[in-house]
Amino acid sequence: MSDEALRALKRNALMSNLVSFGVCAGLLLLFGSILYFTVMIIQGEIPAEFISYVPPTEDGPPTNAPVSKELTSKSVSTSTDIAPSVIVAQNAVGAVAAPVSIDTTGDISFDQIDISMDMDLGEGLGEAGAGLGSSTAGGSALEGTFYDLKMTRNGAPSKIPTVTTKDKDGKPLVDANGKPFKRLQVKDQHAFAREAKKFFRSWSPSALSSYYQSPQKLYASSFYVPMSRDAYGPISFQCDDVCQPGGWIVVYRGRVRAPKTGKFRFVGTGDDYLGVRFNNKVVLEAGYRIPSLYDEKNQRAWWVSGMGDRDRHWAAIKAGKLKDFEGYELIPFIKELKEWNSDLGGLTAGKVFEVKEGEVYPIQIAVSEIPGGGFGFMLFIEDLTDGKKVKPGQKFDLFRTNFSSPDRKELFDLISKAKNKKGQTVNCLFRISKPEQLNAPPFNEDSPIWTAVP
What we know:
Layout: H1 3-43, E1 50-53, E2 80-82, E3 86-89, E4 100-102, E5 142-152, E6 162-164, E7 184-186, H2 189-200, E8 211-213, E9 218-220, E10 224-229, H3 232-236, E11 248-257, E12 262-271, E13 273-278, E14 281-287, H4 307-318, E15 329-331, H5 339-344, E16 347-349, E17 353-355, E18 360-369, E19 374-383, E20 396-398, H6 408-416, E21 418-419, E22 425-426, E23 443-444, E24 452-453
Parallel strand pairs: 20-23
Antiparallel strand pairs: 1-3, 2-4, 5-8, 5-9, 5-11, 6-7, 10-19, 11-18, 11-24, 12-16, 12-17, 12-19, 13-14, 13-18, 15-16, 19-20, 21-22
């Protein structure tokens, strides 16, 4: 390349660099001008001015907003009314501010607020699940299945002997059209115990798979049914057109989250049977009939039908003859239990178990009516973390999985107006005519919630 060509090439490169620099500078100047014009000229400056507003100390306007139910049984000390200063923009729309109530009498601990932030509450902590349960799933409840041991899964009679009952005058039963019909009732309770024991030894669903199961599932959040008639079971599960009263078992299954770390035990009773299996261990069995105790050699071993049998049962527990009942305790003098108090001695407290807050544990709750007649059960839970037991006359915590709590009037109406499969109203109350006569003790209204989780 000649010297003249080299100098021309350098002049062209310099000219290109100068042009590029000029273009970039021009673009930067253009963007800056647009930004300045937009922000400073068009928008302008709107001065903000604030004034201090102090609300009056008198009460604010009344409100009809509902009051939310407290989430914990712990009470908070009386609060003090304080009217804090509030900063309000001068041009803002006027507002009425009521005094804010703040607890300043002590430290606020998050331990006092039992609010779970988990995302697995499904439908939320609902209000359904009274009696034997709701037909609607969700709402933090356990799923219940009805098993009739008098029939096979196909509806044929099982090997448990049954009899066809007659009316009170000894005449054959007839339906609404005057036609005779059969009502199967357990004839041999020991035969029922032999079959039921197979389940209560393992608590495996397969042990009941050969028996009839109701298509309808129920979802219960508490387990508190005052004395009612045995017909309430099949009617509740909408299988009364197939299943006759007596000779059935209901099993509720699910998982619950512990509300706190500590020691607990279940307390309750049932007619004929109430059992709880928690964290894969049987921690409570109570009632008039306990199938897991059935013994071919001593056929009365599972039977509690009065004071004599009750005393024998508890003597065997104290003597250590019932190895799976160590630590059980009788809770007597529950005046509201009436005949359950006289026959069973009150409530039965089961084995102590430990849990950790937030941990999830499997649970099964079983109830059963065997010969027929009266039916009912109740399940409480006692917190023994601090070593203190519920004293006579005090209330137990209701075992529940959501906010709902049984109400005597609602239970009375529910049981007295049960709807059978045909849509007919059936009074399933047992020897009572008003809510005050329900055979069930009171409980703590602010009982902790053992949230049911999927």
